[in-house]
Amino acid sequence: MNRLNDCVHRVTERIMENSRGPRSSYLELMRREADRRPEHKDVACSNLAHAFAGALEDQDAMKAGRGPNIGIVTAYNDMLSAHQPYGRYPDRMKIFAREVGATAQVAGGAPAMCDGVTQGEDGMELSLFSRDIIALSTGVALSHQMYDGIACLGICDKIVPGLLIGALRFGHLPAIFVPSGPMPSGISNKQKQETRQKYAAGEIGRDELLESELGSYHSPGTCTFYGTANSNQMMMEMMGLHVPGSAFVQPGTQLRQALDRAAVHRLAELAGTSERTLAQVVDEKAIVNAVIGLLATGGSTNHAIHIPAMARAAGIIIDWNDMAELSSVVPLLARVYPNGSGDVNHFHAAGGMSYVTRTLLDEGLAHGDLLTVWDGGMEAYAAEPILNDARELDWSPVTETRDDSMLRSANDPFQPDGGMRLVTGNLGRACFKSSAVAKERWTVQAPCRVFENQKDVVSAFKAGELDRDVVVVVRFQGPRANGMPELHSLTPSLAVLQDRGHKVALVTDGRMSGASGKVPSAIHCTPEALGGGPLALLEDGDVVKVCAETGELCCQADLSGRTPAPDPQSEWGVGREMYRMLQTHADSAEKGASAMLASAGL
User: Fold this and answer.
1) Model pLDDT for residues 188-213, shown as the tens digit of each residue
2) What is the mean pLDDT of residues 305-309?
3) Pairing of strands 149-153, 103-109
4) 421-568 under CATH 3.50.30.80, yes or no
5) What is the arrangement of strands in the sheet containing 149-153, beginning at the earlier edge strand?
6) Is the model's pLDDT at 186 over the cut of 80?
7) pLDDT tens digits, one per residue of 14-28
8) Which of 267, 310, 263 lies closest to 289, judged by CA?
9) In this model, does residue 41 exceed pLDDT 70?
């Protein structure tokens, strides 16, 4: 392992300095929580009886206090393909716990919505703030204080960040995240993308589109494109919160079960000790590693919002300047759809996270000295899990890529810098996912067309009103306006315009999916339009420039004397009105767009 890169060291030191106060307060809180956590023998008998009454097979062990008790927080439902395998996990995990003299209970459940189902629909406005609800649900589950360790079962978009934010408030305990793995590969991603664009262009009907989608999303397991769900799993590896190499092992396999067993056994080993608690594992270096992994693999833009929020829950302050500076030195190592043709199964077969970790450590581009849930620090994560000849879990080092069209070394990358860039100017600050966009399209300067919802964009496209060079502005999509929904349903229409030879870009205070494609997009724009942000001052025909090369996001017109467009009325239905309180109190996208963290003063 080479000496740590100067930029990585400098950014880490700056984050540590900026976080000194809140991090110190957080760690002091965790010390107090550890000291005041009641021993089971000191808890009133009535309380214990309530806690143990449903655990018929483990009652004797619990009454005798024979071993640690693991709290399982599960985001199981069988509408999410990624979470469907979790249905049987608790029963198996209880058996695994008994094997090492421990017990396990389902401490509670967290809601888990599928952005793929709500994409382009009204329910998507609940998506981002479901993260706060998941964090609060995790807090409720763990508030019983009957647990010596935490097993978090979650994979998808807001679920892993929400589980981590909630669990960090109980960071005096050890915690391990337990994934279930991706579904097998379906139809090629190129074929899926072509079919979507044909449908957007009116060349095929709905039946053909549905058959194509079913060919892609077809069985239990995580969706195989490299969106937010799979980026979550990458980050848990880079932060040392998984059993090493467990991110992308498919469900229903012997290896998957061996990894799940290892997670429970390891939690039982750590539980009740002061070693490797969640608060200790998730430190400034772990957060920096998460950013580095995101940049190196071209991961989901959603994590420009989630990483600051997760960090804040641990008393760590990080912003887009830090992420952009890291992006200047972290090379792009992976081409996973939508940034390439292969999916996460192909990525894993090429060496996956084990090789990414190996080459980043070799070039001094990641912190190797993390305190991880597994012995050996980040070096343990540079090997892939296997079943040896005795069918026991083992690890094999991964020292080279098995497919350099999918995965490359840090000294021979796809591009010399990371997958995201910060663009700024008189329209605010925004994120640009450069890894998914051809470099010749990094700069777009054209008259804008302003919209206040994505359905009107699609209508204008179908009417031929956008058949030209255009910057499409979709405003009032920020956290406080309507919950900051993803606008991924715009991608096929805008991609069609781009394929027709037009220069096209999207500017929005909303989000794009982790599956954001080839259209240049300045997203998460802050300040948001609601309340008079710069996007509220734009008018149709204003010339807007988006440039990832120079980091510009600006309008050529003088906006200083304009009156902002009026804030839209809040929509009701599909439960959106129940989330209005969270939206009203949310902070900016760059801070993590959280009402809960803002209200707590974190």
Assistant:
1) 767 777 887 787 778 888 888 767 77
2) 98
3) unpaired
4) yes
5) 103-109, 69-74, 149-153, 175-177
6) no
7) 999 999 999 999 999
8) 310
9) no
Residue type, 535: L
Nearest to 297, CA basis, from 158, 414, 411, 184:
414
- Give the Cα separation of 413 and 416 in Å (integer): 6
**In the chain, where the domains are located:** 6-36+67-184+219-397, 421-568
Q: What is the 3-state secondary structure (H, E, C) of 76-123?
A: CCCCCCCCHHHHHHHHHHHHHHHHCCCEEEEEEECCCCCHHHHCCCHH
Helix (H) or strand (E) holding 129: helix 127-142
User: 105 pLDDT exceeds 90?
Assistant: yes
Cβ–Cβ < 8 Å for 367, 373: no
Residue 431 counted as an annotated binding residue: no
Determine the 3-state secondary structure of 550 from DSSP: coil
- Quote the pLDDT of residue 449: 98
Spatial CB neighbours of 35, under 8 Å, sequence gap ≥ 6: none
Position 516 confidence tier, pLDDT thresholds 50, 70, 90: low
For residues 587 and 109, what is the distance between their CA atoms, to the nearest angstrom? 26
> Rounded mean pLDDT of 387-393?
94
**Using an 8 Å Cβ cutoff, are 343 and 211 in contact?**
no
Q: How many CB atoms within 10 Å of residue 36?
A: 9
Q: Are 34 and 67 in contact (CB under 8 A)?
A: no
Where is pLDDT greater, at 160 or 123? 160
pTM, two decimal places: 0.94
pLDDT at site 155: 97
Residue 284 has pLDDT above 70, yes or no: yes
Percent of the chain predicted with pLDDT > 90: 77
Q: Is 223 annotated in some ligand binding site?
A: yes
Helix axes of 303-313 and 127-142: crossing angle, nearest 10 degrees? 30
Q: What mean pLDDT is reported for the chain? A: 93
Q: CB–CB of 462/589 below 8 Å?
A: no
Which of 277, 248, 253, 261 is closest to 150 using CA atoms?
277
Calpha distance 295→332 (Å, rounded): 7
- At residue 482, the pLDDT reads 93
Written in H, E and C, the secondary structure of 436-454 is HCCHHHCEEEEEEEEECCH
Cα distances (Å, whole numbers) of residue 318 to 129, 261, 305, 309: 20, 35, 11, 9
Render 55-73 in DSSP notation, one character per residue: -GGGHHHHHHT-S-EEEEE
> CB–CB of 508/522 below 8 Å?
yes
